[in-house]
């Protein structure tokens, strides 16, 4: 969903900040929206008891300066909200990989969700609390008459915006903070699987309500948010399902067992014949003891001489133990040079191969929903609600 953004040159609390191109587009848009409606905003603020003389605010380039200040303040507000999440996660010992700012706000990408029960709720609620506190502090500045004129305009705008950020994020829809709080709390009575399903149902209802409201009132932005909530909510449920499927699983559960192996003396001619009968993307090369030496890729076999040996064609492959944690291994798959792992037993003998395709196949198979033979997930039963 999020493209690669621009890394900002500062890291508050050590967290890298990335600016998505969509956010860079939206900032000038907000500056323009605020700047072109300074008089209307001033009138609106008057209704809230914040009396500002619109005349000096709308003179010359002033509205555009106010617009730019408001947009920058909005940027800072979203960033502070996300830093709230990041610091709460840190209290649970969870690292924030990066904070990405995009046109619908910010995303703090955590290394993993804190496992402790209820921790997700705490990390989620800290965001809206941060925004609410920011809003109250800004309102206090106004009440104390600490700011006047243009500064008062920007401070009032940001006080209202932060209150809005807090309220919007409290909507009980995944992936918003309110939805996370709801799911985390539902885990107590319903258990992990049903909590996610129930939270997803509430999310859909909220998304539909928002969408219908946005449609009836011609608010395209609301409509976009409704679609975003619906799509992101589904992705969230998928991720939760995958997390559950991986729980307690070992590499051996998902690997392709007993792959066809070759030795160093095999020639390209022989390998091509093997490929014709038993097509695979790669063939592991093993020693007489069955220890993996490397792989020969099937598509390396074209256009080379028959006599070329497997030793010359071989590419390196990383090994992993069959009893290694599956989820952690899958995460490392992308960083391997061969795009796969040779799976070995305790004596270093090849037991199988693990590729991304193996993992996808395993996730799609019924096996992923059932307790594993060697895993620690034996206390779980298949949940009819999960499929
Ligand atoms: Zn948040």
**Terminal CA distance:** 25 Å
Biggest sheet, spatial arrangement of strands: 1-2-3-4
Count of helix runs = 14
Order of helices and strands: EEHHHHEEHHHHHHEHEEHEHEEH
Give the low-confidence spans. 370-387
- The gyration radius over C-alpha positions equals 28 Å
- Major beta sheet summary: 4 strands, mixed
Could you report the average pLDDT, rounded to the nearest whole number? 84
Helix content: 40-55%
Number of domains: 2
Give a count of the beta strands, DSSP E runs of length 2 or more. Answer: 10
Tell the overall outline.
Answer: elongated
What structural category do the secondary elements indicate? alpha+beta
Oligomeric state as shown: single chain
Cofactors and ligands present?
A: zinc ion
The fraction of residues in strands falls at 5-15%
Layout of strands and helices, then pairs:
Layout: E1 6-7, E2 17-19, H1 21-36, H2 38-47, H3 54-57, H4 62-91, E3 96-102, E4 105-110, H5 119-143, H6 149-169, H7 177-190, H8 192-216, H9 220-246, H10 251-254, E5 256-257, H11 268-277, E6 282-286, E7 292-297, H12 310-313, E8 318-321, H13 326-333, E9 340-344, E10 350-355, H14 356-364
Parallel strand pairs: 2-3, 8-9
Antiparallel strand pairs: 1-2, 3-4, 5-10, 6-7, 9-10
This protein binds zinc ion.
Zinc ion binds next to helix 4.
């Amino acid at each position: 969903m999020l493209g690669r953004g621009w890394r900002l040159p500062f890291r508050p609390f050590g967290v890298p900040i990335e600016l998505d191109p969509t956010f860079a587009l939206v900032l000038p848009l907000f500056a323009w929206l605020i700047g072109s409606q300074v008089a209307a905003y001033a009138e609106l603020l008057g209704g809230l008891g914040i009396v500002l003389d619109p005349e000096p605010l709308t003179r010359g380039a002033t509205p555009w300066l106010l617009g730019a200040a408001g947009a920058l303040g909005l940027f800072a507000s979203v960033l502070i909200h996300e830093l709230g999440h990041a610091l709460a996660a840190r209290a649970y010992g969870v690292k924030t990989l990066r904070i990405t700012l995009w046109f619908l706000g910010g995303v703090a990408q955590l290394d993993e969700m804190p496992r402790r029960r209820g921790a997700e709720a705490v990390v989620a609620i800290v965001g809206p609390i941060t925004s609410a506190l920011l809003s109250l502090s800004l309102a206090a500045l106004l009440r104390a008459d600490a700011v006047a004129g243009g500064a008062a305009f920007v401070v009032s705008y940001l006080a209202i915006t932060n209150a809005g950020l807090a309220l919007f994020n409290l909507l009980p829809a995944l992936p918003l903070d309110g939805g996370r709080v709801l799911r985390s709390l539902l885990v107590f009575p319903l258990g992990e699987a049903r909590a996610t399903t129930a939270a997803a149902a509430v999310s859909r209802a909220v998304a539909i309500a928002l969408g219908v409201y946005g449609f009836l009132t011609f608010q395209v932005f609301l409509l976009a948010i409704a679609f975003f909530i619906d799509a992101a909510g589904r992705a969230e449920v998928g991720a939760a399902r995958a997390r559950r499927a991986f729980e307690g699983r070992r590499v051996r559960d998902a690997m392709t067992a007993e792959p066809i192996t070759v030795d160093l003396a095999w020639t390209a001619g022989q390998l091509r014949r093997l490929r014709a009968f038993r097509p695979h993307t790669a063939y592991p090369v093993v020693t007489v003891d069955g220890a993996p030496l490397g792989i020969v890729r099937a598509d390396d076999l074209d256009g080379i001489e028959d006599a070329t040996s497997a030793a010359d064609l071989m590419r390196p492959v990383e090994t992993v133990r069959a009893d290694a944690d599956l989820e952690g291994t899958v995460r490392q798959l992308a960083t391997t040079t061969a795009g796969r792992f040779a799976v070995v037993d305790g004596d270093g003998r090849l037991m199988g191969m693990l590729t991304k395709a193996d993992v996808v196949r395993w996730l799609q198979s019924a096996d992923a929903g059932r307790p594993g033979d060697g895993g620690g997930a034996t206390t779980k039963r298949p949940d009819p609600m999960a499929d």
